[in-house]
C-alpha cells in the first residue's frame, strides 16, 4: 500500500482523534495533494510547522492502527466478502427453481453493494 493511500485510510479511520488543525493539515496534504508550502501559505504557518505537524500526526495515526488494527480488519473483511460472492457465483444454478435463482441473485447483489461501500 503506497504512503498516500495508507495515510488517507488512516485519516478516514482515525482522523477524528486529531485536533481540527492537525486534521486540516493532513487532509490538505494527503487528500487534496497540497504541498507543504501551499499548506503553510493557506494556513499562515511556516513550512517547518506543516512538516512537523504531518510527522507528528503520521506517528499518532500509525500508533492507533498498531493498537486497534481497524484498517487490517477492514481489509480482511473485504476479502471475506469477495470470497463469499465468488462462492455464490460459482453455484450451479441449472437445477435450481427460478425463485431460488432469483433469491440467490438478490443475495449476490447485496454482497456487491457491501463490497463497493
TrEMBL record:
Pfam families: UPF0122. Keywords: DNA-binding. InterPro entries: RNA_pol_sigma_r3/r4-like, UPF0122, UPF0122_fam_protein, WH-like_DNA-bd_sf. One of its GO terms (molecular function) is DNA binding. SUPFAM superfamilies: Sigma3 and sigma4 domains of RNA polymerase sigma factors. PANTHER family: UPF0122 PROTEIN CBO2450/CLC_2298 (PTHR40083), UPF0122 PROTEIN YLXM (PTHR40083:SF1). NCBIfam families: PRK00118.2-2, YlxM. Might take part in the signal recognition particle (SRP) pathway. This is inferred from the conservation of its genetic proximity to ftsY/ffh. May be a regulatory protein. Belongs to the UPF0122 family. This is UPF0122 protein B9R14_12680. It comes from Acetivibrio saccincola.
